[in-house]
UniProtKB/TrEMBL annotation:
Names of the cofactor(s): a divalent metal cation
Native source species: Rhamnusium bicolor
GO cellular component: nucleus
Coiled coil segments of this chain: none
Keyword line: Hydrolase, Metal-binding, Nuclease, Nucleus
Family, per entry: Belongs to the HARBI1 family.
Family annotation (PANTHER family): NUCLEASE HARBI1-LIKE PROTEIN (PTHR22930:SF269), PTHR22930
Subcellular location: Nucleus
GO molecular function: hydrolase activity; metal ion binding; nuclease activity
Name of the featured protein: DDE Tnp4 domain-containing protein
Residues in DDE Tnp4 domain copies: 23-100
Length: 172
């Protein structure tokens, strides 16, 4: 990613002529960069930043849950794949297709819900370590601020995000 060799898609216009880059979602351990978003530090959060952190966290949990479900079914994801990138991509896609077929057959919507609850419980028991502080580039800060504005805009805000931001502020 640092050498621009990942072939990340070009930024796209998704709202009010704002161009958004495609980004990876990371936790506090990762540095903020143009294509890698991390949450804001928990110190002195404004309501807009709390809402961004909430939306960021929701995206991360969904991705982690999906990967967790794949890993439970297919052991190949438990370790490094000794495959070429092209073959690793094919194996991953095949596992996704097989997983969806099995899910339809099993009707396991409740299993997904249980996995999300399990992930939330693990996060509560094992709070993440203190982040390592690094100075992000102006481009990275601008990208994250673009997402902050987007998540707080009337067109994409969700009714519960304000309530959640308030609850988290007071650790209720």
């Amino acid at each position: 990613m640092e050498t621009n060799e990942l072939s990340i898609l070009q930024p796209r216009n998704i709202s009010n002529n704002n161009v958004f880059p495609f980004v990876f979602i990371g936790d506090e351990a990762y540095p903020l960069s143009k294509n890698l978003m991390r949450p804001f530090s928990r110190n002195n959060l404004t309501p807009d930043k709390r809402i961004y952190n909430y939306r960021h966290s929701r995206a991360r949990r969904i991705v982690e849950c999906a990967f967790g479900l794949l890993t439970k079914k297919f052991r190949i994801f438990e370790t490094t794949m000794l495959l070429s990138p092209e073959n690793a991509e094919l194996v991953t896609l095949a596992c996704c297709v097989l997983h969806n077929m099995l899910r339809e057959r099993e009707g396991s919507v409740s299993a997904i819900h249980e996995e999300l609850l399990s992930l939330e419980e693990r996060e509560k028991r094992n709070p993440q370590e203190q982040p390592i502080w690094r100075r992000a580039s102006n481009a990275a800060l601008a990208t994250r601020n673009l997402f902050v504005q987007y998540f707080n805009s009337p067109e994409v805000s969700v009714p519960w995000q304000n309530k959640f931001a308030f609850i988290n502020e007071h650790n209720i």
